[in-house]
Design a protein that fits this description.
There is one protein chain. With 132 residues, the chain is of the alpha+beta class. It has one domain: Cyanovirin-N (HIV-inactivating Protein, Cyanovirin-n), CATH 2.30.60.10. 18% of the residues lie in helices and 44% in strands. The protein is built from 2 helices and 10 strands, in the order ααββββββββββ. The strands form 4 sheets. The protein has a 3-stranded antiparallel beta sheet. It has a 3-stranded antiparallel beta sheet with strand order 6-7-8, with no helix packed on it. A two-stranded antiparallel sheet has the order 4-5. The protein is elongated. The termini are far apart. The structure holds 2-acetamido-2-deoxy-beta-D-glucopyranose (2 copies).
Length: 132
């Protein structure tokens, strides 16, 4: 029991500061002409500042982590190390332009969770190139 409490404290200490520190981009799906996802790779054709169209890819392992079955933004989070059945959907939030990443992610005790995160809240178009 004591070990569990100690571990939980360490997890909080490790993750809270990085979430506060991390500054992610957002909104790629509204400024990119086309996009698609396959596995952990997001591919898009986005408009640069000068107006040209640029193709780029982003490995979402660089952007998201699985913490106890929940996907969250974390630089180099490597979520796919503990998630499977990764799918991508274009969603329909109020702006009609949200992309969703869905996966089945494992908790430390082996329980699996069907979870999703709005990729466009954390991935942006940085001068034509996808970035998180
Ligand atoms: C960008 O991707 C599109 C669609 O896959 C393709 O038709 C086009 O030739 C690509 N453009 C460049 C500059 O690679
Ligand atoms: C996950 O993928 C595996 C292999 O394709 C499949 O057998 C399984 O039914 C999927 N699980 C869910 C919950 O979709």
């Amino acid at each position: 029991m004591k070990t569990t409490v100690t571990l939980a404290a360490v997890v909080v200490a490790l993750f809270v500061p990085s979430e506060v520190r991390a500054q992610s981009d957002s909104g790629f799906s509204s400024t990119c002409a086309t996009w698609s996802g396959s596995g952990t790779i997001l591919t898009a054709t986005c408009t640069s500042i000068s107006g040209s169209m640029i193709n780029s890819t982003l490995d979402l392992n660089d952007c998201f982590a699985n913490t106890e079955g929940i996907l969250g933004y974390q630089v180099n989070g490597n979520f796919a190390g503990s998630c499977s059945n990764i799918t991508h959907n274009s969603g329909n939030d109020l702006d009609g332009d949200t992309g969703y990443l869905s996966a089945i992610c494992s908790a430390a005790n082996g329980d699996k969770f069907d979870t999703a995160i709005a990729t466009s809240n954390y991935v942006g178009n940085e001068n034509g190139v996808l970035q998180c």
